[in-house]
Amino acid sequence: MTTRNKKILWWIVGATVATMVLLYVFCPPVHNWGNALLGRNEKALPKPDTTATNEYEYGVPVESFEVETIDVPRDSLLDSLKMADSIMAAAEVKPLNGPPPTHIEGFGEGPLPPAPSKNQVPGRTQEDMQEVTPMSLTDLEAHESENAAVNNKIKACRASYNKLMAVYAQFSKMPTAALQEQGAKLKEALLKDLTALMNLSKTKNDDMGMEEAADLRREVNKMQF
Question: Among 139, 168, 191, 194, which is least packed by CB within 10 angstroms?
């Protein structure tokens, strides 16, 4: 058998198989005949009738269940909360059951605290800020580096720290919104400079610069604006 005859034979076999598959899929008589050859019986598979009332997905129930209804008394507290959500004015809420509300000792007694002025920052009192006081440069140990670039950066950071301390001292005496904004900007700028000093010191392998940056950062973080 030549090569050309072999190709023709394989084409005939492939076309026959493809034709049989298509007939099995789309032609019901061939489909049923194929199932009979394969030993499959589709009639044996259950097909529940969705229109019937006595058939279910898992068959007919073998026993019935009786449900007992338990009468639980309503909770007056939950009813009061439900009424509070439905009434616009909170003063009109009244408990359904129970004694009327009584006065709580110490609640609403005595004069009200003074209202803050428009320049004062709420929640920032002088007593709160005096709990953690940053140290001045005269109390901090001065670190001098042998590297000129690191030493110049240290001097610039110490000058910025003095300026920030002056603003923080004024803010501690009279916490105004303007001083708060100014101090926050100076603090953010100084923290960036200290990060640059730390990176420069690591590059130059300078211990004095790293210690100075760590000491100043510790004191700057104490200043809360």
Answer: 139
How many CB atoms lie under 10 A from the CB of residue 149? 14
Tally Cβ neighbours within 10 Å of residue 171. 23
Q: Is the pLDDT confidence value at 21 over 80?
A: yes
- CB of 143 closer than 8 Å to CB of 209: yes
Whether residue 186 contacts residue 219, with contact meaning beta carbons closer than 8 Å, is answered with: no
Predicted local confidence at residue 189, as pLDDT? 92
Taking the CB of residue 194, how many other CB atoms lie within 10 A of it? 21
Query: Would the pTM count as exceeding 0.70?
Result: no
| Nearest-angstrom CA–CA distance, 152 and 140 | 18
CB 175 within 8 A of CB 121: yes
The C-alpha atoms of residue 121 and residue 125 are separated, in whole angstroms, by 8
CA neighbours closer than 13 Å in the CB half-sphere of residue 97: 7
Which DSSP category does 130 fall into? T
The token duo for 147 is: 């590297």
Residue-wise pLDDT for 104-152, tens only, equals 777 777 777 776 665 665 555 555 555 557 777 777 888 888 888 998 9
Evaluate whether 177 touches 186 at the Cβ level (below 8 Å). Answer: no
Best CA proximity match to 22, nearest among 12, 31, 13? 31
d(CA 143, CA 164): 19
How far is CA 59 from its chain centroid?
48
